[in-house]
Amino acid sequence: AQKITQTQPGMFVQEKEAVTLDCTYDTSDQSYGLFWYKQPSSGEMIFLIYQGSYDEQNATEGRYSLNFQKARKSANLVISASQLGDSAMYFCAMREAPSSGNTPLVFGKGTRLSVIA
Amino acid sequence: GAVVSQHPSRVICKSGTSVKIECRSLDFQATTMFWYRQFPKQSLMLMATSNEGSKATYEQGVEKDKFLINHASLTLSTLTVTSAHPEDSSFYICSARDQAGGLNEQFFGPGTRLTVL
Description:
The complex is a heterodimer of chains A (about 120) and B (about 120). Chain A is mainly β.
């Protein structure tokens, strides 16, 4: 079964508008971490934001915020005031039992965001 | 933030040759490194978990004799694609965690684009 589901293969957003990228996850662990990464055409993985399962506040990092709804097992990424440079692939990922150094990140299939001028 | 380097960034080789990819953590110690493979327009798929001083743990479907992983020190892991074939052409990315770092830290190398002719 998919641990991370991103249902939007592609999204378009007008420059300066906000956009929400969806992510749902599946785990039976109580302790886990959720990540969002941006991957431009160069291929590098750029860390955007992290949410721990025990964090009560939604994570925010500049124009990025994570809408964490634990009961629904969703961790949507909100990008405010979109810029042309935000056009890229966006991956949601999860690490279960994050206190263990050996646990890998598992990725969703990604969403390609295109920002339109 | 911590830096992970990969070398080479791009390699083109003939079918049947072996290719070695190096992954280094430049300013931290990584007891565990992860190797991912990404085909065009797809997500990152975990190939193996590399533990310093011990054998790597391979994901189901990944041939350990074809993808040799060595993690001889706390700062270096290598992936050797043996007898490469065109179907091995892909983007290979390594990732590492700082064993002294926070739960949310996971650093990615810039990736190696392998093309097998």
